[in-house]
Amino acid sequence: MTVNRSIRLARRPHGAPVPEDFELAESAIPTPGEGQALVRTRYLSLDPYMRGRMSDAKSYAAPLEIGDVIIGGTVGEVVASNDPKLAVGDVVQNYGGWQDYSLTTSKEAYPVDESVAPASASLGILGMTGFTAYSGLLAIGKPQAGETVAVAAASGPVGSAVGQIAKIKGCRTVGIAGGPEKVAYLKEIGFDVALDHKEPDLRGRLKEACPEGIDVYFENVGGQVWDAVLPRLNTYARVPVCGLIANYNRTEAPSGPDRSAALMASVLTKSLTLRGFIQLEFVREMYRDFLRDTGQWVAEGKISYREDITEGLENAPETFIGMLEGRNFGKTIIKVAD
Known about the structure:
MDR_fam, ADH_N_2, EC 1.-.-.-, oxidoreductase activity, oxidoreductase, 9 helices, 6-stranded parallel beta sheet
């Protein structure tokens, strides 16, 4: 290749993103400076958090500016290097963004061991996605053998990992997903109960599935799923809040009465723990254990994972839009190059 293609933010989405919010641009391939390496992207991870970075609303991270390359985790091959710790031919994971080539350093890039799993797994079960599940469940959820762990968006890359790790820890697992195909997948990977949130009376079906309540609820969705789960939470239940995908494209507050008073009453009377988190806060203390444990579980067949791979950087915007609408099945990845 002689140019660096990139997908940039053309304008801030209002509600659900549309193709016009993105721009395909071309520029010169960057030259690594002192202490830098040039990485050619093989795989690009698409994740719901990126929708928040496209907004200028106050959040845990600075928003993208108009014209910026969209942020994103990548796996690629070092093709030029002025960093003594990165050699040409090394395969690394970094945050190269939605583009063909990126600059990185050995402080920002992690080596990828393709003997453990395909390189793309470093963007999913053996990367940020898997670590989000591992750290949120174990550090905040603190599941104990015999407890009931419920998971929203359970067929997704985070939710499916949460359910399988909880099962390894001796818990009863309840997965909530959308559609019969995804529900069947939950049963295939070992969930004790799999519920379709698109079917009527989720609250009633949850009550039947969890007669003794829920001890840990891993929140990825919010909205009507949260409304159904809240009454089933046991005293001292723990709720790691990882995402609220049902709210990401909202342009106004939901209709209906203000239910915050009822929520706070439940928090008080049941001594609930609700804690939002970003996986980066656990990296220093847990990432090494995560790589060891999850790599072993994958190798032993105790954890399986599914990838939804689309070829072509130019298809990233449409694939991202579809992911936010629930059209993906598994970890959403763009294959940028061989």
